[in-house]
Specification:
single chain, alpha/beta, 23 strands, globular
């Protein structure tokens, strides 16, 4: 260690030998770029002393700065919150005034509960309200509108209530108009409808506010009629208007003529639609008829001769486009024959028995059964064991249509219906394209991109369907956008004005965008993924514009979502309950989310509440557990009466209800149920309408959600339906595989059947009757998926 020196001398003052050594050492330090620490400190002190002396003389000062060590410069974070830190000014004075006014303007049995007040007065940017059917979620939303408007001075033009469909929109708007009138705020129904909207109506308003899209017409409402402010379509209605049919057909014809791959796919689907349905060797029908069919092999040539003679006599054989040549094939060692072959479709043809022929006709005098029965036996065997494409022509009319289609096939697409696996019916191909594309859109997936993410077993014609759909839907969207009056599917419009395309929202003027400054969502459990994305985009854009204002501290937005997961009944159409269950993740806010749980039911008595919960008790995330009847709803409890379909039983129940001045709601599950209801009470309903009354309403289970009545009568039992390979893949791609569920599409349908029954039962205010047609050990229906409590469901 270097020791400090007490004194130093200049080198020139040293003796010669020391001077030489000092000069050598100094030169070495200079050469090495070093210094002598003690000398440096003494010199630095001396210089400081000199500077101090000079300062006294008024000389300029030179400051030596010592810098801190360098630190890593970090990148500022991006604020991804939908809502900032601003909150509604829900001050005590405004709350007190509204409480007092509610006491004056509303009857005692309509006073909000403590939990409802929490939701009404919530100052949080996001508020979640969950509660069972009849717990007053819509009522709470409307009172919050009054609080925002009358007590926080928010203009009605900055408030939007989103409701599920057009019928519930009209009903909710009328309720808002009546409720505001109690506060001496008189508005027209038209004004109320500018506050209460469906998501589609709110979206259309924003889209048409952009100059280039002023004439835009959503594809779902494309028609020859003029635009209507309420014409936002009916959700999940795949029925095509004549104008939609025209545009879809034009696109189909053009793509078929110009794209060989697409034409091949359509021809494959056409062939699949003609093919005899597969029954499988384990089918009860195959097992029953196979022994007779094996014996019939010995007479198959004679059977073919007889049938071909009948068809020739009718002038329907041979057929143009069909090679009239027999081909033999072997099934389990027995030989059978077909009568023809279609080269274009690579398909065998077997002739059947036309109903116009004599049903007592036999193959030969020695045949034991009639000809039509032998045809049916062979047909069943082919359905169970024949593996190649096969068309079984069962009528002359069917054959005539086939010939016409085969003639046009090289130049024009055929008109046909197709049945997807897991479906219960055949659907015209264009209608099916539209139906499936709507589900894919609702799930938040890209129609054209989905086929490449799916897989199918070899020979499954559904693979051709989805490839064709992807090609067709992309072409259709381009075709629609190029029309004189551009048109886009709702799914595309929601996506284009969502947070995924935030730049598009910058073109929406604030006078329109500002309508959504305060959004209140009713029935939040049944909205599609694109609707949530659109709401995210709109609210984020409002925050962005607010942040650019000179004074932004008083500017805020809010979102309230009310819902009940037990009433999620449109999952099969692609909706998701995530807006209710995942509100904090979908709409993140600096101030967090307020959660309110409504536990009192004001519609139904306790037995109806408990019966509804019994139907969904094995499903997760039920909102109604612990719900209790309150007020008038708690009176005169009675269990659900399970009824047999006895003649005049339905008519007697309806007449008794009308006699007691009760409203009646009849809910049906299927087309067969509708026919039975019409045969039983159709005349009574028509008489009711003729008198200007609506004491009896008939709706499907799926359309029950916004309704209620004194007496509810259920007809039918919601069924699950068959498992679907394609549906499970779509729902897995959309993120429905909770806990690794490998069949999420089937899981959604299982729960939906139970939730439909739950919603139907909980529409009742006083009594509920159920003509269920329940079969023990039968198909997978709502009542077979859960054990019904004998105390809650009694046999009538």
């Amino acid at each position: 260690m270097t020791q400090p020196v007490s004194s130093t001398n200049l080198n020139d003052d040293l003796p010669l030998h020391k001077k030489l050594i000092a000069d050598l050492l100094a030169a070495g330090l200079d050469l090495l770029g070093g210094h002598h620490p003690a000398s440096w400190r003494q010199g630095h002190a001396s210089a400081s002393s000199d500077r101090g002396a000079k300062q006294e003389e008024g000389a300029p000062t030179r400051v030596i700065l010592e810098y801190r060590p360098d630190t890593i410069v970090t990148v500022p974070q991006c604020d991804t919150m939908i809502f900032g830190a601003q909150r509604l000014d829900a001050n005590p004075e405004s709350k007190s005034r509204m409480r007092a006014d509610c006491g004056r303007y509303l009857p005692p049995d309509k006073q909000p509960t403590s939990e409802q007040w929490k939701a009404i007065f919530s100052g949080s940017p996001t508020t979640s309200v969950v509660g069972a059917a009849g717990s007053g979620k819509t009522f709470t939303i409307l009172l919050r509108v009054i609080y925002l408007h009358r007590y926080l001075q928010v203009p009605l033009s900055e408030i939007t209530v989103l409701t599920f469909g057009r019928e519930s929109r009209q009903d909710t708007a009328a309720k808002l108009q009546t409720l505001l009138a109690s506060w001496q705020v008189e508005i027209s129904l038209e004004t109320a409808l500018r506050v209460v909207k469906t998501p589609r109506a709110a979206l259309i308003e924003q889209v048409r506010s952009v100059p280039d899209l002023g004439g835009c017409v959503p594809f779902e409402v494309l028609s020859a009629t003029a635009l209507d402010a309420l014409d936002d379509g009916r959700p999940f209605d795949a029925t095509l208007t004549p104008r939609q049919q025209v545009e879809m057909s034009n696109c189909l014809n053009l793509l078929y003529r110009t794209n060989k791959r697409f034409a091949d796919l359509v021809q494959d689907l056409f062939g699949a639609s003609l093919q005899i349905p597969d029954l499988g060797v384990d089918s009860p029908e195959v097992i029953k008829r196979a022994p007779l069919a094996w014996k019939l092999s010995a007479f198959d040539t004679e059977l073919c001769d007889t049938l071909e003679a009948l068809w020739k006599k009718a002038g329907m054989w041979p057929l143009e486009g069909v090679q009239a040549s027999r081909r033999q094939f072997t099934l389990r060692g027995r030989t059978y024959s077909s009568s023809g072959y279609i080269p274009q479709l690579k398909m065998h043809v077997v002739l059947g028995f036309d109903r116009s022929e004599d049903r007592y006709l036999q193959r030969s005098p020695t045949a034991g059964v009639e000809l039509y029965k032998e045809v049916a036996i062979k047909r069943t065997l082919l359905q169970g064991y024949f593996q190649e494409p096969l068309l079984h022509l069962d009528s002359y009319q069917e054959a005539f249509a086939l010939v016409e289609a085969l003639k046009a096939l090289p130049k024009a697409p055929p008109s046909f219906s197709y049945k997807l696996s897991g479906s219960d019916r055949r659907v015209p191909i264009l209608e099916l394209f539209n139906e499936v594309a709507s589900v894919i859109d609702a799930l938040g997936l890209e129609v054209a991109a989905v086929p490449g993410k799916m897989n199918f077993l070899a020979g499954d014609s559904d693979a051709a369907f989805f490839e064709a759909l992807g090609m067709y839907w992309q072409a259709l969207e381009r075709h629609l956008a190029a029309l004189h009056q551009p048109s886009y599917p709702f799914g595309r419009l929601f996506d284009l004005f969502s947070d995924r395309h935030a730049a598009n929202l910058r073109h929406v003027p604030m006078r329109v965008l500002g309508h959504c400054r305060h959004v209140l969502v009713d029935n939040g459990e049944d909205y599609t993924v694109p609707v949530a994305g659109w709401l995210r985009g709109v609210l984020a854009e409002i925050r962005r514009r607010d942040s650019g204002q000179a004074v932004a501290r008083d500017l805020c937005a809010s979102l309230l979502v009310a819902g009940d997961v037990s009433q999620w009944v449109f999952g099969s159409y692609g909706t998701s309950p995530k807006m209710v269950t995942d509100i904090e993740e979908i709409f993140p806010a600096v101030g967090g989310c307020s959660h309110v749980h409504l536990l009192e039911c004001f519609r139904s008595h306790q037995l109806i509440i408990d019966a509804g919960q019994n139907l969904v008790r094995n499903l997760p995330a039920s909102s109604g557990r612990g719900t209790r009847a309150a007020g008038r709803a708690a009176r005169e409890p009675a269990p659900i009466q399970m009824q047999e379909r006895q003649p005049a039983a339905l008519l007697a129940l309806c007449k008794e209800a009308i006699k007691e001045q009760h409203q009646v709601l009849v809910l049906i599950d299927s087309h067969q149920d509708r026919e039975w209801v019409d045969s039983e009470i159709g005349d009574l309903i028509r008489h009711d309408r003729a008198g200007g009354s609506r004491k009896i309403r008939v709706r499907s289970f799926h359309k029950a959600k916004a309704l209620q009545a004194d007496v509810v009568i259920l007809v039918g039992d919601p069924a699950v339906g068959a498992s679907s390979w394609y549906r499970n893949q779509l729902y897995k791609l959309a993120g429905f595989s909770v806990g690794g569920d490998s069949t999420p599409g089937d899981t959604v349908l299982d729960g939906e059947a139970q939730r439909l029954a739950h919603v139907a039962v909980t529409r009742a205010r006083r009594r509920c009757y159920w003509f269920h047609n329940r079969e023990e050990g039968g198909s997978r229906t709502a009542t077979n998926l859960v054990t019904l409590s004998a105390e809650l469901f009694q046999q009538g």
